[in-house]
Amino acid sequence: MAETHAEGRGGENENPAGIGKGPGRLLLWLYGMFTVAALSRSIVQICTKFHHAPLAYVLSAVAGVVYAVILAALVKGGESARRVAMVCCSAELLGVLTVGTLTIADSSAFADSTVWSYYGADYLLLPIALPVAGLLWLRRSAAADGARSGSTRGTGTGTPVLRRSPRS
Fold first, then answer.
1. Phi (first) and psi of residue 152, to 5 degrees
2. CB distance 77 to 20 below 8 Å
3. Residue 145 reports pLDDT greater than 80
4. Which of 90, 35, 40 has its CA nearest to residue 64?
5. CA-CA distance, 126 to 133, in Å (whole number)?
6. Is residue 113 over pLDDT 80?
7. How far, in Å, are 53, 59, 107, 134 from residue 46 at the CA level?
8. Is the pTM of this model over 0.85?
9. Residue 160 per-residue DSSP state
10. Are 116 and 6 in contact (CB under 8 A)?
């Protein structure tokens, strides 16, 4: 007897809306574009002029890897993927804020710009907006998933966790 897609993963993907569905599709598209842009840019820069600005080029590569992990988590869906995406979006936001602030405070700290320089000004400030939108979407979709599943939520082990209902 064939098992269903959700059963084959231990119920992990029983998420009808999914974190990559609805408005999450825009996040998928943006993270896909940023993955390609950041990794392509950094690979070319590392291969052709690494000696010029190694820190900037490695930071761009790190940004590309973070974008790729977030993209993969959004595509996979499920609670564990949501947690991975939340951690990575938080790290991305921290990176953008740190690198953006450093480039404003001391522009000579980086010999060349990174994806996150000046809070992503070279990319229409999307690098600062994207992790915020990602975190908000992940939080919103988690709340919607919780509302759809009722007062219990599976832990992936088959053991339900009871939630307290909000008081009026």
1. -120, 155
2. yes
3. no
4. 35
5. 10
6. yes
7. 9, 11, 20, 28
8. no
9. E
10. no
